[in-house]
Amino acid sequence: MIAWLRGRVLEKHPNRVIVDVSGVGYDVAVPLSTFYMVADPGAEIALRIHTHVREDQLALYGFTSALELIVFERLIGVSGIGPKLALAVLSGMEPRDLVTAIQRGDLARLTAIPGVGKKTAERISMELRDRLPRALEASAGAAAPPTPGDALREDLVSALANLGYHRQAIDKALDRVLNDVDAPEFQAALRATLKELSRA
After folding, report:
1. pLDDT per residue rounded down to tens, the chain (200 residues)
2. Between the N and C ends of the chain, which has fewer C-beta atoms within 10 Å?
3. Whether 156 contacts 174, CB under 8 Å
């Protein structure tokens, strides 16, 4: 059973990544939250893996964080939810926001995910609300201590989200931009982040 892969990115697509491990290419299905964290082809990569075995198929599902893997494995344990729909759910909402929505029984947010109807959202909320580990719940709900750059970052996230960019892509670009400049002004930081996003 494969649980971890470390190698180099051979190919990268929104729903899959091919990982070259010592000359062997592993085709790994991934959610968008993982796709946006994966570097360009040629870069090193490490993924947590869920190996899904059926009579006619062995499929690998990869994640950059333990949170994504835990939520994925909880989702496929819900009646009527297979790996493909579980990936769609993770792709439709940032993992921590998804955990919060499940805990709160926020059906409106869950049904906003493509492919998730009201009945499916109800099953997810009902079956997973008490199955999420306490540590996971705490990490999803705890707020980090505020820093001087928090307000600027939140303003930038809001502006870029309104322009249609995905949250994971925004965070990745902001990490680069805000780490390179001390106390940047909003307009300069926005221009630099848009430039960074255009390279992705």
Report:
1. 788 999 999 999 989 999 999 999 999 999 988 988 888 899 999 999 999 887 778 899 999 888 888 889 989 988 889 999 999 999 888 888 888 888 888 899 899 888 899 999 999 998 888 776 543 544 444 434 444 456 677 777 777 777 777 777 887 888 788 776 665 677 888 888 888 888 86
2. N
3. yes
* Residue 180 phi, psi (nearest 5): -85, -20
Nearest to 92 by CA among 72, 118, 115, 60: 115
The residues with which 46 forms a beta bridge, in sequence order, are 6
CATH number, domain of 123, equals: 1.10.150.20
Domain of residue 8, residue span: 4-63
Residues 71 and 133 in one domain: yes
